[in-house]
Amino acid sequence: MPTRPVLLDCDPGHDDALAIILAAAHPALDLRAISTVAGNQTLPKTTLNARRICTVAGIEDVPIVSGRAAPLRGPALVAEDVHGESGLDGPAFGPPQVPLTSTDGIGYLRDMLRASQAPMTVVATGPLTNIAALLLSAPDVVERIEEIVFMGGSTAEGNTTPYAEFNMIADPEAADIVVHSGVPVTMCGLNVTHQALADDRVCAEIAALNSPLAGICVELLGFFASTYRQLWGFPAPPVHDPVAVARVAEPELVSCELSRVDIELTGSYTRGATVVDRFARTGREPNARVATHLDHERFFAALLDAIRELSTRDPNREDPR
Q: Could you say which of 14, 240, 293, 296 is catalytic?
């Protein structure tokens, strides 16, 4: 079966960790590189966390590169209240064995896109700083990107301010550049990712795999569940970021509609909001696919398969912790 070449830009982050696992193991995807950005934690921490996850999951053949440490404008915003001091609080990780390939993430992605024989898909699960910086510095790569699928935004309320989701408010200017870049864009916002609740049954099925990686995933979800319960009263944690990966790997799992999306840049109370014109009230041309519905059962089956696949690649592998 032909695979789709993918670049994953992320800010690990508990749900980013699961996105890395799904992107690396899904048979429909060819994960070419992982780039990191400041977001859920500072850039050094998100980069370390990407290396940690790749180490425990045995993902040793995918380059990891670090990108921007701050948004295009203003200071960096981190989500320590959600992801903890390390950005991956919960499990105990040993020293990562997977190296960092480059600290020039923007240049690395630019060169990879220019050298690729076929256009590549960018999946972004953190603030869109790296992707906007790439488009600004190398406009020619627009033709080398098949699609940008990002986790961020919402068709309704936000989770960091009343109307802004974290990845959008962390760098609204970058999000504005991406949605108006001319590259086909798909937005997987809170309205769909809040359908991806990792409830007790899901966690039990992961635990039943009885592997070191599965154990780490359960611990990650346990910590994530506690912060979501405390901050928002959720009964189970939503695993936002793998939804964007699933949309690329199995598009039928994530239903979308064509809409106009704009980013609020100046509102006193609404900066970072994704303004989604679902009913064409403004008369402006649609510029994005907006995810609306998730097939919960099939989504978590795909995620479970990915954890199982990475757990069984080397049955003699010792617990890397």
A: 240
